[in-house]
Design a protein that fits this description.
The chain has 181 residues and is an alpha+beta fold. The chain is built from six helices and six strands.
């Protein structure tokens, strides 16, 4: 039903419609507020018209998703199956995108209300040098599990690229875990 997507907001006595964009409602209202809305207004809106001066229909706040990313993060890791790879740490390139659970930090502008990507980067670097990994798949999985578990991230996509394992080539993995909210 089309009306289910709308909040009913009374018009001001001036008859002017408030100038509000769709995402303004998502940020301004935590819960729908219905001040003196007409009890049958949703029927009128479902029919495709709003009574003049009685109610105004705004789109209901849509679930707003945000994701943070870290791109082109260079680091070294103890990784590889060949003797020449085991002799010295190998250069890696990491791209990470992860969904945050709320938009609280957008409202408060406080680091404590979001995932601190500096902490995420430090954790990835720590994992890369913690032990020797034979495969890029194993290191990518360890990184994804750590980020998802330690930072309460519902969804992430991690791309791990091993730079120059062979002349003129890069190899890697793209790993996606979780579900987008």
């Amino acid at each position: 039903m089309r009306a289910a997507r709308y909040l009913l907001v009374p018009l001001r006595r001036t008859g002017r419609r408030p100038s509000m964009k769709q995402n303004d409602l998502a940020l301004a209202l935590q819960e729908p507020r219905h001040d003196n809305a007409h009890p049958h207004a949703w029927l009128t809106l479902a029919a495709g018209h709003a009574p003049r001066g009685e109610v105004l229909a705004h789109p209901a706040p849509q679930p707003v998703r945000s994701s943070l990313f870290v791109r082109r993060l260079r680091m070294e890791a103890r990784i590889g199956v060949y003797d020449w790879e085991k002799a010295a740490p190998q250069p890696l390139l990491i791209d990470l995108e992860f969904e945050t659970a709320s938009l609280l930090a957008c409202r408060t502008d406080r680091l404590g209300d979001t995932v601190d990507y500096a902490e995420v980067v430090a954790r990835l670097r720590e994992l890369a040098l913690a032990r020797h990994y034979e495969l890029v798949e194993a290191l990518a999985e360890a990184m994804a599990l750590a980020v998802q578990g330690e930072f309460a991230v519902p969804w992430l996509r991690l791309t791990l690229t091993k730079l120059a394992p062979f002349p003129g080539a890069e190899v890697g993995i793209v790993l996606e875990r979780g579900r987008r909210a």
